[in-house]
Amino acid sequence: MKYFIIGDEDAVLGFGLVGIQGLKAENPAEAQVAFNTALEDKGVGIIIIEHKIADMIRSQVDKYIFTKQFPLIVEVPGRAGKDPGRLGLRAMVNEAIGIKL
Amino acid sequence: MRNVAPTKTNMLTLKNELKFAKLGHELLDQKKNILVMELLNLIDQAVDHEEEVEKALSEAYRALEHAVLDVGKLKLFQIASAINIGSNVKISQRKIMGVGLPVVDTSFEDYPPYYSLMGTSFWLDSSLKEFKIVVKAMGKLAELKISIMRLAGEVKKAIRKVNALEKIAIPNLQETVKHIENKLEENERDIIILLKMTKLRLEKKKLDNQQP
User: Fold this and answer.
1) Would you say residue B17 lies in a domain?
2) Is residue B187 very low, low, confident or very high in pLDDT (cuts 50, 70, 90)?
3) Residue B63's pLDDT band (boundaries 50, 70, 90)?
4) Are the Cβ atoms of A13 and B80 closer than 8 angstroms?
5) Residue span of the structural domain in which B127 resides
6) Domain for residue A88, yes or no?
7) DSSP string of B45-114?
8) In a domain, B201, yes or no
9) Is the Cβ–Cβ distance between B103 and B92 less than 8 Å?
């Protein structure tokens, strides 16, 4: 299994340095293509995707996170750092399952 | 309340059902508690880990920026495509209360040296190192996040089941059983009265026959 990175140019370059394949995406169409490419490759075990790109194809990403066993999807902040308006993990879980922990 | 004939057989089956429902409720409640505990544990871990990854990532991007400034983007892309590092992820599974959670193990296959020492910069080495750390941490983060999502889904399901049993199924069954019990007792009293009246009448008849 290997990683696959979907992000901007810098992310692809950076992760490329450690031998991780990736595609850059800047708009929803590209994001879609990149996501599908990653899914079609059966060798991909973990897809690393930037927050803002994941947001472009949110419904699909969520579908994979919640229902499918493989591949694992992990969202990371982009180069600009963490988006301050973004929900924390705890809040995200609370929202997802509708219970207070 | 269920619409069943108030007979003893029905009452017995319903009582059995009630026992079963209560047992199920207890088990599900335990399951829910275990899942929630595990979930809280994982969330704590994940929050720590997320911060770590973010720090490492910003560190890595900083190094990369310097490397880009030193070497140039085009050259860096060339170097990146020549670097021979295989990142290998092993994904196995562990189970908690029947929920499959992934366990990720990342390893690298290095074949250094990756690039010429001439014309490259210290920052390139540094960003390489940083990104390796990021990737390793990322595997763990993916494991935690996915585990949390799956567990959360399972907790939600368990809660729904527990509530359905507690708030609907069990009270419903209890009410039905009670209703049947009441009906049966009522019938019994009816019969006793009936028997008593019959007895009285028979005795009266006997008396009448004796004193003509």
Assistant:
1) yes
2) very high
3) confident
4) yes
5) 8-190
6) no
7) HHHHHHHHHHHHHHHHHHHHHHHHHHH-HHHHHHHHHH--EEEEEEEEEEEETTEEEEEEEEEEEE-S--
8) no
9) yes
> Residue B129: which of B69, B89, B85 has the closest Cα?
B85
Taking every pair of Cα atoms in chain B, the longest distance, rounded to a whole number of angstroms, is: 140
Collect all residues of chain B within an 8 Å Cβ-Cβ radius of residue A2.
Answer: 86-89
Cα distance between residue B43 and residue A90, in whole Å: 7
Residue A90 in any domain: the answer is: no
Nearest C-alpha neighbor of A78 from the set A31, A41, A37, A43: A31
A75 vs B24: which has the higher pLDDT: B24
CA dihedral A96, A99, B1, B4 (to 10 degrees): 50
Q: Pick from A17, A41, A75, A93 the residue to mutate for testing the B interface (most B CBs within 10 Å).
A: A17
pLDDT digits (tens, 9 = 90+) for A37-81: 888 888 888 888 888 888 888 888 877 777 777 778 888 877 766
Total count of domains within chain A: 1
CA separation for the pair A32, A10 (Å, rounded): 19
- Residue B3 placed within a domain: no
Nearest to A89 among B50, B79, B85 (CB): B50
**ipTM of this complex:** 0.77
CATH code: domain of residue B80: 1.10.287.3240
Question: Domain span at residue A58?
Answer: 2-79
> Nearest C-alpha of chain A: how many angstroms from B137?
11
Alpha-carbon gap: B15 to the closest alpha carbon of chain A (Å): 33
The H helix count followed by the E strand count for chain B is 4, 2
C-alpha distance from A28 to closest chain B C-alpha (Å): 23
Q: Is A91 part of any domain?
A: no
CATH number for the domain spanning A49: value is 3.40.50.10580
Average pLDDT over residues B130-139: 83
Q: How many domains is chain B built from?
A: 1
Interchain pair B80, A17: CB under 8 A: yes
